[in-house]
Specification:
Radius of gyration: 17 Å
Order of helices and strands: EHEHEEEEEHEHEEEEEE
CATH topology: Deoxyribonuclease I, Chain A
Number of strands: 14
Helix content: 10-25%
Distance between the termini: 15 Å
Largest sheet: 6 strands, mixed
CATH class: Alpha Beta
Strand content: 25-35%
């Protein structure tokens, strides 16, 4: 399977010539050319989600906004409708009250943070798998750690009901040696494999930060890599796809 994590960069007036309206065509072109099996998106505002859902043919894109009224940015997951059947969908908030829309930790930015979860079944077989997609806080180290711990607790609970391989995609706003990433790699329940190591400048700020540390990841449990991971780092018509590179892992299930 071809799994991608892709922070699209929300539509922002301050981005001038890099605003979404000037990039959305090349983003769609790249998605159509790559034909990934599953994509975890971040920073998707409603008008961006509408564009992708309307024009990215053959894919089902699911996820709700992070606000109290399910508005604002979402972390939608897109997957090929001709290859997978949706078995479960839910969104939970990274907070002390994960089922309360718009909730957040006290020590974090003003932005609520969510994790979108789908369980998929390949149409060619019966082996289910889970996908979790998130965007951790950009301000608070403690909120990132708490958010990562909340995701791993939810995964452990989900495994009690339907144990299956899973992947975790996202913009973690944390470098590879940070405490938040350690939660994913060394948690006591399901230690994860970083399937996209050694990608500095996964965030590059539209080319302005070429030496920034990696903050985007694809983690897995019950999968193995079948070829090296890639980054979508090229430009089209002088434009970057986003202020992040999309990262792509090629995985197959090793646990059924």
């Amino acid at each position: 399977m071809k799994i991608v994590t892709f922070n699209l960069r929300c539509d922002n007036n301050g981005d001038a010539e890099n605003r979404w309206q000037f990039r959305k065509g090349i983003v769609l072109d790249r998605l159509e050319a790559e034909t990934p099996d599953v994509v975890g998106f971040q920073e998707v505002r409603p008008e961006m989600a509408e564009f992708i859902r309307m024009h990215w043919n053959g894919y089902l894109c699911l996820g709700c906004g992070r606000g109290a009224s399910f508005d604002g940015e979402n972390n939608m997951i897109g997957f090929r409708a001709d290859r997978f059947e949706l078995m479960q969908l839910d969104t939970f908030w990274l907070s002390e009250t994960p089922d309360v829309p718009g909730s957040r930790y006290a020590d974090q930015s003003s932005c609520p943070r969510v994790c979108t979860h789908v369980m998929l079944r390949p149409l060619a077989g019966s082996s289910l798998f889970h996908v979790y997609n998130t965007h951790l806080d950009h301000v608070s180290d403690s909120a990132r750690v708490l958010g990562a711990q909340a995701i791993m607790r939810r995964i452990a609970e989900d495994m009690k009901h339907r144990s299956a391989p899973f992947v975790v995609t996202g913009d973690m706003n944390a470098d590879p040696d940070s405490p938040a990433i350690d939660v994913f790699k060394n948690n006591p329940w399901y230690p994860l494999v970083n399937e996209t190591p050694h990608f500095p400048a996964s965030y590059h700020g539209f080319g302005r930060c070429p030496d920034a540390p990696q903050i985007d990841y694809i983690f897995s449990h019950g999968f193995t890599a079948v070829k090296p991971p890639e980054a979508w780092s090229d430009q089209a018509f002088g434009k970057y796809l986003s202020d992040h590179n999309a990262l792509c892992a090629y995985l197959e299930m090793t646990e059924k």
